[in-house]
Amino acid sequence: MAKDTQTVDPVGKSVPRLDAFDKVTGAAQFTDDLQFGPGLLHGRVVRSPHPHALIRRVDGGRALAVPGVKAVVTGEDTPGFIGLYLKDRHIFCTDRVRYVGDPVAGVIAVSEEIAEDAARLVEVEYEVLEGVFDPLTAFQPDAPLLHPDLGSYEVVPFIFPRPGSNVSNVFRVRKGDVDAAWAECDCIIEETYRVPHIQHVPIEPHVAVARWDASGEVTLWSSTQSPFAQRDLIAQTLGVSQGDMRVIGNYIGGGFGSKAGVSMEALAVAMARRVIGRPVKVRLTREEEFCCAFVRQGLVAKVKIGGTKAGQILALAVEYYWDAGAYTEYGVNITRAAGYSSTGPYTIPNVKTDSYCLYTNHPVGGPMRGFGMPEIHWSIEQSVDRLAEALDWDPVQFRLRNCVQGGDKIVTGMVMHPVGLSECIERAARAVEWGKQEPPTAPHKRRGKGIAICWKAPAMPPNPGSEAWVRFNEDGTVSVGVGGQELGQGVFTVAAQMAAQALGVPYEWVRISHPVDTKYSPYEWQTVASRITWSMGNAIKAAAEDARQQILEIVARHWDESPDELDIRGGEVISYRSERSLPLASMVVYGLPRPDDQGWIGGPIIGRGSFMPTYVTGLDPETGQGERAVVHYTTGAQAVEVEVDTETGQIEILRLAAVYDVGKAINPNQVQAQLEGGVVQGASSALFEALLFEEGRPLNPSFVDYRIVTAVDAPRQIVGGYVEVPQDDGPWGARGVGEHPMIATAPAIANAVYDALGLRFNDLPLTAERVFMALRECEGNKGSRGFLRARE
Amino acid sequence: MSRHTISVTVNGSAEYVDVPSNMTLLQMLREKLALTGTKNGCEAGECGACTVLLDGEPVNACMVLAVEVDGREVTTVEGLAHDGQLDVVQQAFVEEGGVQCGFCTPGMLISAHSLLDRNPHPTEEEIRQALVGNLCRCTGYTRIVRAVQKAARGRV
Fold first, then answer.
1. What is the CATH number of domain B3-79?
2. What CATH number was assigned to the domain covering residues B88-155?
3. Which of B33, B35, B101 to mutate to test the interface with A (most CBs of A within 10 A)?
4. Element containing residue A74 per DSSP (H, E)
5. Residue in B closest to A203 by C-alpha
6. Where are the alpha helices (DSSP H) in A81-163?
7. Could you give the CA distance from residue A686 to residue A256 in angstroms, rounded to a whole number?
8. How far apart are CA A299 and CA A320, in angstroms?
9. Which of B139, B83, B79 is nearest to B110 (CA)?
10. What are the domain boundaries of chain B?
11. Which residue intervals of chain B are DSSP H helices?
12. CA–CA separation, A522 vs A688, rounded Å?
């Protein structure tokens, strides 16, 4: 960073990233880069080859006999349950495996090669059981049960499992009278949509290193979005005091939710317990990364929606069947979030929602960018488009007519805060020249435009907290302690901007204390849910204001003035009355002499801040109604123009506009960067991505078989924009936007493809093959190119 | 496993390294020379996070055995800056926001360098083609492409 630059009042300015220099020089340390010396041991996980089976016997004897093998760990070593919202998971399986890849044993050895070879020698005897591979099957009363002990699992109060079934959570909305409303509708659309499992695909695979000291202190170095949640959950399960459990989180090479909560990290900790004093590293291979950490849940969505010719959406009935995988300890809350957001960003008077979390013998469904919202908006936003067309409304005008406004009573009965969604819609539509038709670039190509809108609230318990502290160095530079994690989104930069703004020092004076270390860093629930700018931001602002007030009071006594007449500007305390000034460096560590020079005032300044939302209320489990379901919603709109090659089925995204109401853009450039990255990840999920399984066996866990967007495939023209309707509980009015750009992308593309071809796709992804086959089928039905002529 | 002592020039500095015959160049850089800027993303030559220059040509270090680089020259991300001064490509990545999580960045920088060495004035499509083997999940590539364009202008 240029040390001679002095950016005052940095909030709202596109200051450069704090971490960029270290990241372009290779100096930035990720967990796998840490050096542990020759004492480092390596762990390899033995995984189930069966999607569903009982474990009859595990014998590590032959593996243990291999020279260089230090220990073999099995489910007997980890009898307790672990999980964020519903403790339904063992660290190593004890009696049953529930997906291909479920950890059965761990081998610790002096090298990766020996651990890998020895892992093959662990003998496991299984009794194979019938599997469940589809959420609708899992929902049947006679389906094989994956968790017969569901009723005995520990669960948080807002999650509702149904023991004796595969339903680990249900969220219901009963608002208005849906059954009566259908009669008043001029048109009703009923469709079923499917969303496959996909994976986050961070370029850095999961990695964790753990060490148990003889003293009882446990240290975990992990690539994690959730150092504090990992401390808490792993400590609980292994019977360690949280005070003796330390988690250190270095830079993260991409997370997107996959590194939230606990996925593979507890394996390393459980293994390290058997080799006291020695660090044990477990690093997932890319194949394991695809199927053995978290995946995004699959979804079958049944949507019935009705409206009037006047353009009002009158009623919505949805059933969400989540393919949540083998364990739903985290995923149960996706079902809940999908329920309380089930209308999408529309005000609809009559709503009936049933959102079911279903166990299947697929990998563990967990949080992924959007937390259920990309999945449900895929169905909502195509259904709204269909309804608009059937009612002879323009898709943009129909959304403007029905989208949520400040003061509306939304799906849960909560009163919506001020929101700039209408402006987002208008600007996104304008950016793609909505209504204007351009000819395609070739006769066999077709062009179309589509729009989709979305909302998402931070999905979390009602009371997740944030802490921050602000300290000073002798030269007046500032150290800010945070517990939020830098996973690429730019949180350290934004944290420094906020601290500088609230203190009155230049941005360049602020240092962020990292890596986050639960032993020294302030508390942060998790870096998830697009909540950090908002929640941690509130804590940082409070900490900086606390420090500022202390400074003003000390200088006021020194000058014999009132603190109300003083301010801090550009790193100096100034008096508006006497026009005196004093550099911070002269007092933030050593204090100041009293006016009579007899004794001193002050001392090292430390500001503290904490924030926790205290105003989220419970919801009625039968109706989903309550006063305040969530802290707030971030809303936005995306419009896209595509060109489809009818000879290959390939979809080219010509231009894409994404406009979100961020409340306040703390760093406009970073907002734009999140918009670009999010829409491209969304486009990748729309065009390419699906984890394929055959009876639970993964078919494509590699970059060759599971394609993600490359530099060549990525859209060339992305227009990002934002609206600033301030959030009353956010710092400087800010709300989060990290996840949102992914939400509306896929349905916007699908709506544009419909505009181009007249074909609807209810299932993701829109691969060239699928589009091509649909075109072929259409030709077969209507005669050669008939469908195309019909639209010309 | 047989062991070999190889001599290799890494970022301009002569190194003698004792390596087992099955060790990859990626492992050698990270584990023997503590040059951890080169990242391990897939160990299958598919993600590009471990891209380094071998005698000036970009390779996936996970696909090259250490014994193969005996007597040759390797450049990693740590070899790009000099005396704390970023080179023109690094500087462009910082200025254009081509960095988010930073895990693909070292490989991206090396591929960009290689492209600009071969083709000092690439078109946008040539840049995108040159980076097709370097996966990025954060940026959507827009700012990376822009950074390479800026670097090309800066190198003139």
1. 3.10.20.30
2. 1.10.150.120
3. B101
4. strand A69-74
5. B41
6. 112-119, 135-139
7. 16
8. 7
9. B79
10. 3-79, 88-155
11. 25-27, 88-96, 105-118, 124-130, 142-155
12. 40
CA separation for the pair A498, A537 (Å, rounded): 7
Radius of gyration of chain B (CA): 15
Q: Which residues of A107-134 are buried (b: 16+ CB within 10 A; e: fewer)?
A: bbbbeebbbebbbebbebebeebebbbb
Q: Among candidates A335, A325, A207, which has minimal Cα distance to A259?
A: A207
Main-chain phi, psi angles of A42, to 5 degrees: -125, 135
Ranges of residues in chain B with a pLDDT under 70 are 156
In angstroms, the first-to-last Cα distance of chain B is 49
CA distance A578 to A573: 12
* B36 with A32: Cβ contact below 8 A: yes
Find the length of chain B: 156
Rg for chain A (alpha carbons), in Å?
28
Nearest one of A598, A603, A501, A507 to A551, comparing CA atoms: A603
Question: What gap in Å lies between CA A650 and CA A768, rounded to an integer?
Answer: 5
Cα separation values, B136 from B48, B75, B131, Å: 9, 21, 10
Nearest Cα to Cα of residue A60 among A124, A103, A114: A124
Separation CA A71–CA A388 (nearest Å): 63
CA–CA separation, A621 and A161 (whole Å)? 12
Which of residues 681 through 720 in chain A touch B, CB cutoff 8 A? 681, 702-704, 708-712, 714-716, 718
Q: Looking at residue A78, what DSSP letter applies?
A: -
- Residue entry with tokens 């995923």: A331
Could you say which residues from 203 to 222 on chain A have a Cβ atom under 8 Å away from some Cβ of chain B?
203-205
Domains and CATH numbers, chain A: 20-29+464-611 (3.30.365.10), 37-129+206-283 (3.90.1170.50), 295-460+618-791 (3.30.365.10)
Residue A315 β-bridge partners: A306, A350
Contact by Cβ (8 Å): A587, A441: no
Cα separations in angstroms, A724 against A132, A497, A659, A668: 46, 18, 11, 11
Distances (CA, A) of A63 to A49, A67, A71, A75, A115: 18, 9, 9, 16, 9
C-alpha distances (whole Å) from A182 to each of A305, A311, A350 are: 9, 15, 9
Q: A75 is written with which tokens?
A: 């489910």
Residue A36 has pLDDT above 90, yes or no: yes
pLDDT digit string (tens) for A513-564?
A: 999 999 999 999 999 999 999 999 999 999 999 999 999 999 999 999 999 9
User: What's the pLDDT score for residue A790?
Assistant: 41
Q: How confident is the model at residue A784 (pLDDT cuts 50, 70, 90)?
A: very low
**Residue A206 pLDDT class (50, 70, 90 cuts):** very high
Residue of A nearest to B110 (CA): A24
Residue of A297, A285, A298, A295 lying closest to A263 (CA atoms):
A295
Is residue A383 within 8 Å of A302, Cβ to Cβ? no
Is this complex scored with an ipTM above 0.95? yes
Residue type, B1: M
- Comparing CB atoms, the residue among B34, B36, B132 nearest residue A711 is B132
DSSP A567: E
